[in-house]
Specification:
The structure is a homodimer. Chain A contains 9 helices and 4 strands; from the N terminus they run βαβαααααααββα. Chain A is an alpha+beta fold. Chain A starts with 5 loop residues before the first strand and ends with a helix. Chains A and B meet through helix 3 of A and helix 3 of B.
Chain lengths: 201, 201
C-alpha cells in the first residue's frame, strides 16, 4: 500500500476549506497517512487564472453560497460566526502556514485550524500579520518568531511558489485534495477520498 | 409532515444532473414524496444570467470536470459513454419534458432517464427533435405525438417560463433540488437532501 501524504489545498477565505480542514486530518490518520497542508490564494486562481468573478459576487451563486455556508457549518456541527466583511486578505495567514512547515517541528494542522476557527467560528480578523501572530501565540508558538517569519523573503517566495505550483497541477478551488495522485474538489468529496484511499472503485 | 414534491432542476447537457436524476426518484419515494421535474438551460442561466463561460471551457475547472465526470459515473455504478461533442443543444429534450408533464398521464421520470441514458450511457445524439421523439418512442410513447408536441407554441413557451421562473428562484446549476423550500446544488448533496426531508439539522 502506498503511503503518500494526503495533499490538502485551501484558502482561509473559503469556509468550505474550513469544513474539510476540520475532518481531513482525522481521515488521514485513520488510513495511516500524513497530511501536506498547502495554502493557496483564490484571488490568484479564480480571478487571474480562471478569469472568474469572486464567488460571492457571482449572480445567483453568490446568494446561494451565502445561504449554504452557515447551513453546511451546522450540518458538520461547527459553530458559525463569520468575519465581517466575509472577504479579507488571507495572505498573512497563508504565509504563516508556509513558515510553520519550514520550521519542521510545528503542528501545522493545529495552526490551520486555529486560524480558520478564529476567522469563521469567532468572526475575528486574521487579515493582518499581527492578528495572525496572535492566533499562533494562542497555540503556544512564539509570537515574535512568527511575526518575523511573515516578513521573511523566503516565506513570501514560498507562498508564491506554492500557489503557482498548485495552479500548474490544475488546482483551482478550496478545498482541493490530492489522494494518491487523484484530485478531488470540494468539501462534499471526503467520502470519495476515503473510498479512493481504500482502493478506489 | 409536509408532503410537498421534491423539485428537481436539471439540464440534459449536465452529466451531474444525470447522476442525481438516477437516484432522486427513489429517494423521493422512500420519503413518500412525489417529484417535480424542471428542465432548465444552463446556456441561459450560466452564460446569460451569471456571465460565466461554459464549464468545460473554464480554465483549470474544465479539465477537472472532464476527469471527474467519468470517475463519478463509475462511483455511482453508471455506464459512461458520453456524446461527442459533449456539448449539444438540450432544448428539444427539455421541451419533451415540458410536453410530457402537460399530458398528465406520462411517467416523466422514465422519459428523463431514457433521454439522459441515451446521451450519456449510449453516447447518442439527443439534440434533434427526431432523436428526442425516437427516445420517447423507445419507452412506449407515440412518436408522432411527441414530435408534434416539440413544435407546439405552448410547449416552447412552457420551457421559457420554466427557465425564467427557475432563475427568479435563484436556481443556477444542474442538478439543483428544492426540498421543503430548501435549495441544494449538486449531485453530492443528496445525503443532505435526505437529512433535510427527515427533519433537517
Amino acid at each position: 500500500m502506498s503511503k503518500q501524504p494526503i495533499e490538502f489545498f485551501f484558502d482561509f477565505i473559503s469556509p468550505y476549506g474550513w469544513f474539510a480542514a476540520e475532518r481531513i486530518g482525522a481521515l488521514a490518520r485513520s488510513r495511516g497517512r500524513s497530511m501536506a497542508w498547502h495554502p493557496i490564494l483564490l484571488g490568484v486562481t479564480v480571478r487571474q487564472e480562471m478569469g472568474l468573478p469572486p464567488l460571492l459576487e457571482t449572480p445567483l451563486k453568490g446568494p446561494y453560497l451565502a445561504h449554504d455556508a452557515p447551513r453546511s457549518a451546522r450540518f458538520y456541527g461547527l459553530p458559525w460566526r463569520p468575519p465581517s466583511p466575509m472577504t479579507f486578505s488571507s495572505v498573512a495567514a497563508a504565509r504563516a502556514i508556509i513558515w510553520a512547515k519550514a520550521q519542521g517541528n510545528i503542528d501545522t494542522e493545529a495552526l490551520v485550524l486555529a486560524l480558520y476557527r478564529r476567522a469563521w467560528a469567532e468572526g475575528q480578523d486574521i487579515a493582518t500579520p499581527d492578528a495572525v501572530a496572535e492566533v499562533a501565540a494562542s497555540i503556544g508558538l512564539d509570537r515574535a518568531e512568527v511575526r518575523a517569519g511573515l516578513e521573511s523573503p523566503g516565506v513570501k517566495e514560498g507562498l508564491r511558489t506554492t500557489v503557482a505550483s498548485a495552479i500548474k497541477r490544475g488546482i483551482f478551488g478550496s478545498p482541493f485534495i490530492i489522494a494518491d495522485g487523484e484530485p478531488f474538489w470540494g468539501s462534499d468529496r471526503l467520502g470519495m477520498v476515503e473510498r479512493w484511499l481504500d482502493g478506489g472503485w
